[in-house]
# Entry
Amino acid sequence: MMDIVQEFYDNMAPQYEKLFADWQAATEEQAVILDRLFKGEGFDKTARILDCACGIGTQSIGLASLGYSVTASDISRAEIEEAKRRAESRNVKIRFEQGDFCALKEVFKEQFDIVIAMDNALPHMLSPQKLEEAIKSILGRVRSGGIFVASIRDYDELLKTKPPYSPPYIHKTQKGQRVSFQTWDWEGDRYRLTQYIIDDETDVAVSKFTCEYRVTTREEITKLLEAKGCRDVEWKMPPQTGFYQPVVVARI
# Structure
């Protein structure tokens, strides 16, 4: 049976950009944020980057457009193919590989200056053991003196209320509007997420995608990173970075 995470992203790949009002603008904005963060950590555009949960290329394409050397991987074959098409249309060179970030050494023998895993990728690990496996694998691809950068939802805040849904995003289109939102069905430290995308134009079209996440607190990730030998583990919140999720930076 296909892994639920892989199936979720394979199915969403053709529509993933609909989660953004302007996907291309988002790639540019996020690249600027990450570039500023990297510079603050002492890196410049000679840094070699691995985006190990690249999706359709939201961060990797933007960073490559700024002049970084970017390698990108994802568990979803469909998203890798979508990312390749988008990189080609932007005329940027990125090495793309399909790969599970729990087993990066099977795909990449080399190490990188910076490894990133953005957009709440780590909480797809549904047990503490799987999260530890993922972090060990990822850190193994960071050179000595390099950094690991990841973003997750603010679960420390969400745990206080366990909301049943996310606020809807409403985007005006040429023929009407698009509404996207998520419902969250909580069970213990896990929740089943259902992503709805409603295109309300000439006709109404509804798309539905389902996946699972495990609540992952900043304390849990910090302890794992430190246990695996990271130093200077620091969380940067959205008001500080401009990124929409909390971001952790850990130096090897």
